[in-house]
Amino acid sequence: MTGRTAEIAVRCACGSAAVRRVNQFVLHDELWWDAEFSCDACGAHLCEHAGAEPAPDDVRAALLAAHGPVRLRLVGPLPSRLPALKVVREVLSVPLPRAGELVEELSREGLEGTAAEMEFLGDRLRRGGVPVDVDR
C-alpha cells in the first residue's frame, strides 16, 4: 500500500506562513491518517494527529485535490451480494440499507475516494471473496 501526502498552506501563531502536511495510509491492517505542522520562520513543529480513524473532511479534500480520486469497481457479476454487503457495512460503518446502495454503486460506476481508502476497502473486499479492481 502506498500512502499519500498533501500539503496545506496555513498561518502560524507567529504570523508567518507555515505548512500542514497530511497523510493517509494503511498500518497494521487499519486505515490511518496523520497531520504535522511546521513553520520555518519560528521553528515550530508538531504532530497534530496520528491514528486509525476516518480522516476529517479537510484532510480528505487536500488529498483528493493533490492526487485526484481513485475509483473502486467490481470485476464481473457477484454470485451473492452478501459478502460485499458485510465488508462494506463493516469497513465503512454504515447501516445495511446504505451498504446496499454502496454495493450497487460498486457494480455500476464504482465508488470514489482517496487512494488509501479505495485500496483499503478493495483489499478487504478481495479477502471476502469479492472481485474488485482499483482504477487510478
Output mean pLDDT: 94
Strand order of the largest sheet: 1-2-3-4
Q: What is the total tally of β strands?
A: 7
Order of helices and strands: EEEEHEHHEHE
Structural class: alpha+beta
The largest sheet, given as strand count, sense and whether it forms a barrel, is:
4 strands, antiparallel
Which overall shape is indicated by the principal axes computed on the Cα atoms? elongated
Q: Low-confidence parts, pLDDT < 50 over ≥5 residues? A: none
At the fold tier of CATH, the topology name of the largest domain is Ribosomal Protein L30, Chain: A
CATH architecture label name of the largest domain: 2-Layer Sandwich
Helicity, as a percent range: 25-40%
Tell me the number of helical segments per DSSP (H or I, 4 or more residues long).
Answer: 4
C-alpha Rg (nearest Å): 17 Å
The CATH class of the largest domain, by name, is Alpha Beta
How many structural domains does the protein architecture include?
A: 2
Q: What is the terminal separation in angstroms?
A: 13 Å
